[in-house]
Design goal:
The chain is built from 15 helices and 18 strands. The chain is of the alpha/beta class and about 475 residues long. It folds into 2 domains: about 230 residues, Carbamate kinase (3-Layer(aba) Sandwich); about 150 residues, VC0802-like (2-Layer Sandwich). The longest helix is centred in the N-terminal third of the chain and has 28 residues. The two termini are about 35 Å apart. It binds aspartic acid (ASP) and magnesium ion.
């Protein structure tokens, strides 16, 4: 079970997750083992990230104010949640010790005004390192056996790509099982820091933002768990963004491949690689709301009951994008053109979200995040304009609309239905892409047309549950 920062940051919320653990330990006489993975309290990781500026300026006073604030927040949470005085005292001592270490490290970095990817990961780890003992002692406070561990203690070994480290699964599996299984046999609930691991040299690494999801699925796949729960404050994955479509609905069940198309842009963001470990080992992933237990949430799994009317699952709107079209006669019939264009963009760290090229090969259209547009234009102009490419045109203020659903594979007439529906709304389609997996069909419209397109498709495919 992974608990996100938004369900940990108040005593009343912590009480709820302790109740969840207690009830899952014993469901109708069936005993379950639980491993908890915790995020930092909400907002803490962002605050630590924002320290980099202060460190570079060597602003030790501002850093001290930050650390004092962290101390107050975490100690208050302990005092409000852990009622047993002895346990409360112990938890406080542990947390204060971690905060002292945090202060020393920040001071050291500020003294030399330097932050590297490695030291950034080191300081980012403190968010989770502070929340894990609090959850552990809260469990003990409710008479449950619990111990807390960092990702490193529990055996998550990664490469040294600080900030976006990837687990070395073979080593990790050996270590994690050796560590966790005996604990479970003793009835202990291990509370593990999400988001962090260690590289082979023992340096702390982080798995990327929202990495606690990933920690949970890595551990689940190592110990071959029956299921993974991601507890947060949303009911599940939705058929559309409720700010666009009023009657958007929570999906009960969805496949891993469909979910992978949705989690980056929907109301519930999940780490992009978090689905991988559980998908490979076929472990269902459940998205649940800790504050709305009567809601069953969304289950992500391989086995989807297929009914005739559920072939489309969700209509997604991706905002804040721009379209870039590059072309020129020189591109026709010359192998390697696309490689050169994409390589130029990649070297400048421009991420491309969508691509389309017609068979005449005279132009390539790409959609990217608007924030990357400046970099993209500058790098293409500098390197390729006037040579390989003759023109470069930009359309800002566009949105991508994606229709997701594994069931549309091989079904005729879906594209016809989609484009007829948006045409009725007088929406002009600027660019289209569909992968041959037929898992999704994406098209680009002017931003001002986006809501109308999403609404009409949501209705067309009966996603409001009325059909
Ligand atoms: N605390 C980290 C973040 O905010 C990891 C997580 O919450 O999953 O990105
Ligand atoms: Mg988070």
């Amino acid at each position: 079970m992974k608990f996100g920062g938004s369900v940990l940051d108040e005593s009343s919320k912590l009480d709820k997750i302790i109740k969840i653990c207690t009830s899952f330990k014993n469901i109708d006489g069936v005993k379950n083992d639980i491993v908890c993975v915790v995020s930092a309290l909400s907002g803490v990781t962002d605050k630590i990230l924002s320290l980099t500026g202060l460190i570079m300026k060597g602003n030790r006073d501002a850093i001290k104010i930050f650390v004092d604030d962290m101390r107050i927040v975490h100690v208050n949470l302990i005092e409000e949640t852990i009622t047993d005085k002895a346990l409360q005292l112990e938890a406080k001592e542990i947390v204060l010790g971690i905060i002292d270490e945090f202060q020393d490290i920040l001071d050291g970095l500020a003294l030399i005004s330097e932050i590297t990817p490695r030291s950034l990961d080191h300081i980012l780890s403190f968010g989770e390192r502070l929340s894990a003992p609090i959850v552990c002692y809260s469990l003990r406070n409710s008479n449950l056996k619990s111990e807390y561990y960092t990702g490193k203690d529990i055996g998550i070994v990664t490469d040294s790509n600080f900030g976006e480290a990837r687990p070395l699964m073979n080593t990790t599996k050996l270590r994690v099982t050796a560590k966790i299984l005996p604990l479970l046999q003793q009835g202990v609930i291990p509370v593990v820091t999400g988001f962090i691991g260690t590289d082979q040299h023992g340096h702390i690494t982080t798995l990327g933002r929202s990495g606690s999801d990933y920690t949970a699925t890595i551990i689940a796949s190592c110990i071959n768990a029956n299921e993974v729960y991601l507890w947060s404050d949303v009911d599940g994955l939705l058929t559309a963004d409720p700010s666009i479509v009023e009657n958007a609905r929570v999906l009960d069940e969805i496949s891993f491949t469909e979910a992978a198309e949705m989690v980056l842009f929907g109301a519930k963001y999940i780490h992009p690689r978090a689905l991988e470990p559980v998908m490979d080992s076929n472990i269902p992933l459940k998205i649940r709301n800790a504050f709305n237990l009567s809601h069953p949430g969304t289950t992500i799994t391989h086995d989807i009951k297929k009914t005739s009317d559920n072939y489309i699952k969700s209509i997604i709107a991706i905002r804040n994008t721009a379209l870039l079209d590059v072309g020129g006669g020189g591109m026709v019939g010359s192998p390697g053109t696309a490689a050169i264009i994409f390589d130029t963009l990649a070297k400048n760290k421009v991420n491309i979200m969508m691509i389309s090229q017609g068979p005449s090969e005279s132009s390539i259209s790409m959609v990217l995040n608007k924030d990357d547009l400046g970099k993209a234009i500058a790098s293409l102009e500098l390197k390729l304009l006037g040579k390989l490419i003759k023109h470069l045109s930009v359309l800002e203020d566009v949105s991508i609309v994606t229709v997701v659903g594994l069931g549309m594979r091989g079904i005729k007439g879906i594209a016809g239905k989609i484009f007829t529906s948006v045409a009725k709304e007088n929406v002009n389609v600027i660019m289209i892409a569909q992968g041959s997996s037929e898992l999704n069909l994406a098209f680009v419209v002017k931003d001002e047309d986006c809501d109308r397109a999403v609404k009409s498709l949501h209705n067309e495919f009966g996603l409001d549950g009325m059909k």
